[in-house]
Amino acid sequence: MAGKKGPNFSQLEKHTLVDLIGPKKDIIESKASDANMVYKKNSAWENLTEEFNSRYGVIERTTSQLKSLWKNMKAKCKSAIVKENQERMKTGGVVAEGCVDEVCTAVRQIIQHQTITCKIEIDDEAEFHGDMDNITVLVREMQMFFL
After folding, report:
1. What's the domain range around 56?
2. For residue 117, is it within any domain?
3. Helix (H) or strand (E) run with residue 116 in it
4. Number of helices and strands in the chain (H, E)
5. Mean pLDDT, to the nearest integer, of 29-40?
6. Helix/strand/coil (H, E, C) string of 70-102?
7. N or C, where is the chain less crowded by C-beta within 10 Å?
8. Separation of alpha carbons 60 and 50, rounded Å
9. pTM of the full predicted structure?
């Protein structure tokens, strides 16, 4: 039954995964793809899966499930960062509280080397000449993520 969906991940499981990835982030998040690094990544994921499944309060998961969760958590965190930056641009630097949850904050610390946000100081002349829309588009285009 390949199509059967397992139970959703709990907040505890998400926190556990982030805690376990932290010390292994240099290997797991490495962009190198040579045979040696692929072996290290696979070993790190297998060890991580064993550690994860040995923890109290978690449902037994496969390496594939944990990899998928990690990929989804990173994508959601990156999306939250973009929304936060857009909100900051709209409000002049103020961001509403509660935009990012604890798990996303922990993920952000692990993937911080993968994100860049370019800040552009907007002078009064841009507003005077009606160029604010062009500058907002430019700033959005400059917010990038490394894959």
Report:
1. 11-145
2. yes
3. strand 115-116
4. 7, 2
5. 92
6. HHHHHHHHHHHHHHHHHHHHHHCCCCCCCCCCH
7. N
8. 9
9. 0.70
Distance CA 87, CA 56 (A): 39
In a domain, 2, yes or no: no
Please check the confidence at residue 7 and state whether its pLDDT lies above 70: yes
Q: What is the mean pLDDT of the chain?
A: 77
The mean per-residue pLDDT over the stretch 115-143 comes to: 52
Cα dihedral across residues 55, 59, 60, 61: positive or negative:
negative
Is residue 4 a part of any domain in this protein? no
Q: What is the per-residue pLDDT across 56-114, written as a single tens digit (0 to 9) for each?
A: 999 999 999 999 999 999 888 888 878 877 777 776 666 655 556 777 777 887 776 66
Q: CB within 8 A of 103, min separation 6: which ones? A: 11, 14, 15, 18, 73
Q: What is the C-alpha to C-alpha distance for residues 79 and 21, in angstroms, rounded to an integer?
A: 20
Query: Is 42 domain-assigned?
Result: yes
Place of tokens 């990156």: 78
Total domains present in the chain:
1
